[in-house]
Amino acid sequence: MEYILLETFVIVCDAMNLTKASEILCRTQPTITNRIKQLENQLGFELMIRNKGKRNIMLTGKGEEFLPIARQFVEFYTRINHLQKDSASHLSVSAIDSIGTTIIADIGRSFCEEESASSLSIKTYQTREAYELVRKRELDIAFVSEKIELPNITCEAVFQQKYYVVKPCAQPKDVKEIDPAELDVSHEVYHSWGQDFDAWHKMIWPGQRQPRIRVDSCTLLARFLRDETSWSIVQSGNIAMISRFIPLQRYRLSCETPVRICYMITNAYPDRRSVHLINRFRTALYHYVKTSPDNDYLAIG
Q: Where would I find the HTH lysR-type domain in this sequence (predicted)?
């Protein structure tokens, strides 16, 4: 009895609707219907009551009896895969640029060392595009900056980062404190860290003054921080990377500042061959966050 037929049956029962089930599995409704019929043929009895014109499904008596058995089979298949660790296993990960080149790259390297029989791809997608690809199961994991409530997507807050003011400095010292009034916005290299950050920035520096330069990546930001009059606000995890280009003095703002939360999203019904790799990557992530130097990443939960 094929796993895919059992999985389809369980998902249809959970969704209670063929249309929703087809969206979850990213398959056409006729394909879903055909899989259910194949399963019924193999079992020798009907699982569902077919009422034309009705979207919601109803189980037959035999279908209700078989559902918990099907769930157990799906669970057993998943456990077997954990033990086997299919040689063809592959994990597809995406992250927004600001963390993809730092924490996710570091975790990816250690992951490849530990999972030598598996392959890994890391790509850069913006938040909304990543949600769509995870929904289609074209990505196993995505790290995004925004929580969006969508069906069939599991979203968990995994870590947060503080914001610091940074300035070029030939001989950086320990973290200092600075008042926003001491900063001239016309000398700022501005990087938008999201809508919450933009709203906070406008509240702290109201008026018509505009940042000197606007960029959308940390690599560009590093290129424009060239003299001690220029400054920028950067999330903690990117400071070390930018410091490779130019030494930076880190400042803590004297006013209340927001934090930036990173979310990890997965499909609620992931490819069974990737489940153990998803769990391994999640474990590696939490270990990295908890042992990060200078508390650049603060674990949530």
A: 1-60
- Is the backbone of residue 73 left (phi > 0), alpha (psi -120 to 50) or beta? alpha
* Residue whose C-alpha is closest to residue 20's, from 63, 60, 56, 66: 56
Provide the pLDDT for residue 140. 95
Please, are residues 164 and 243 in contact by the beta-carbon 8 Å criterion? no
**CA atoms of 70 and 75, how far apart (whole Å):** 9
Domain hosting 40: range is 3-84
Given CA atoms 28, 32, 35, 41 in this order, what sign does their dihedral have?
Answer: negative
Residue 85 has pLDDT above 70, yes or no: no
**Tokens standing for 271?**
């490819």
In DSSP terms, which residues pair with 121 in a beta bridge? 92
CB neighbour burial string for 45-58, b if at least 16 within 10 angstroms, e if fewer: eebbeeeeeeeebe
Same domain, 11 and 149: no
Residues 285 and 155 in one domain: yes
The string of DSSP codes covering 239-278 is: HHHHTTTS-EEEEEESS---EEEEEEEEESS--GGGHHHH
Q: Are 92 and 121 in contact (CB under 8 A)?
A: yes
> How confident is the prediction for the chain on average, in pLDDT?
89
